[in-house]
């Protein structure tokens, strides 16, 4: 009898534990689904109502353009109505690998053409990290004692990369590094399309996502940016793809292989750009959710591997450069300074870059402790001010968000032309001149604004339609978007900073646009349909 009672109690405990885990995962998934619906819907409304552009002087000051906002919103709505009602053109079901080849070839061609049109030397941080890479390769270590690398040692990952890359192809061979970036864009978009297929199991959604990938030019144009952004995003998306494979395999050996690959790709991504940490956090939360739902220990081991390699990627580049140069990098500007910048007014826009802490760092002989104290004081003062003036705080953060998320070019022109010496511009090039300050500049901005609005509308609609039917792994990408949104609400702001997260909306936008085309606006009333009608409505995805 005692044995039977113990067995019954053990079974009840197991059942209760399983039920608790299931409820925790379900509630967490619902929270992410509804929060993402709210955030993306608000960004959608903001993008339809506002458009921010940079002046022709290329000062990094985003200014509202009411004309562009009105024209792009009208065009977006007309295109959407045409998309819904013109049903003669059917969406082909093309195999994903064929779609990926087309998009990869397209992005390589467009990226190469763009670099040929705006074949200008890099400026600002781009030039600094490339120059330091050259000095490292040539064993000229004295410059590493200067303020820049002491203040920003997190750049050492890209410095090491460029030291090797420049030694192979030439340190002023900007075409080579931009072709490398174009290849990274192709890998990123290919990974995103494969993720779309695995998340939605619909070839039509993959095809729509491919069209959006090709239409969304800022990401492709960023291949011209000599920096770690694009390679980091490419490897982050490869890591996300490995996690999707891991979530769908039943073999422990393959799960382990995908988990290791995910961790390694994250290691490379963070080596190129430490902001890959936002992707890491989203991936870690997804690993935890998968552990709770599947009860497989291997998911937890994968999460641990990702965390260990993150620490390695964050510290190893600086350790290598320090070992090679014999110079310590223990005076880095404290991270809290960027949080303080994110709370300050700026000549550019609320929460955008201002030189206060850079100036203080130099004035106090590169002393990070003084900068830390100043940053804490700024945060305290701004927090008190916002608490006393909530309306001002609301305006500050609303303006900070829309200057990032409603700037449709994501600084893809500014990173090319901003800070350029006028002598470097090729006045004989009609295309370069037109993109710089002519008709193509205006047309490109309007085009980007229309595509951005359609992406927001589609993503918001998908999040609304399927708000009760998401699986944890299907929300992995939108979770990273929420992380990027939260991070740059707190951190220093710039519109190009949020580009790595915005592109993750494309799969959801594709799903939402298919919903709109297949069922039109009446599908908003899905809850009033019969069960058979509802099943028919939802059958084009695997969300149920």
TrEMBL record:
The chain crosses the membrane at residues 31-54, 66-86, 98-117, 205-222, 228-246, 255-272, 278-294, 301-321, 444-463, 475-491, 497-516. The keyword Membrane applies. Keywords: Membrane, Transmembrane, Transmembrane helix. This is Glycosyltransferase RgtA/B/C/D-like domain-containing protein.
